[in-house]
Specification:
This protein has a two-stranded antiparallel ribbon with strand order 1-2. It is an all-alpha fold. Helices cover about 35% and strands about 5% of the residues. The model has no long low-confidence stretch (mean pLDDT about 90).
Length: about 160
Amino acid sequence: MATMKFDTAKKDAMAMPVVQTAASAFDFVRYAAFAAEADERYAAFLAKPQGVAVWQRVRAGEVFRDGCRDRQESLRWQLGALARTMDYLTDAPTYLEPWYGIGTTAAAFGAEYEWFPGQSPAVLPRYSTIGDVPQKLERAVELAPVLASTLMTIEYFL
């Protein structure tokens, strides 16, 4: 059987086309009303003994590829996605995300990021077997650049 290779040239299948939106052009009043209505629907859902909540979010594929490298660009992509999301009914509010991939947790334990052009960030494997992992792993936040970057992105988004 032939080995399948992950095709890094393919776009995010869950993404929708989004127009970048500057914070100065984003309709915060409309979004606040949209989020409040979604909060009400979600609270009503949680109060029921059963049911299904539907969470609809427009996913800006650029953010989940290399668009996360620049927090200003990431914010513009995400605000564009939030603006488009407001055209859909959802049972839970959408949000901004300081996204740098799933490797942020691994970076806390010593993994290093690779930033391949046009792709989402990747984490290089640090250990080959479970036996290679030390009993105790510690790493200061300042030694993991992506963790510091995540905190700076949260501050910037706020």
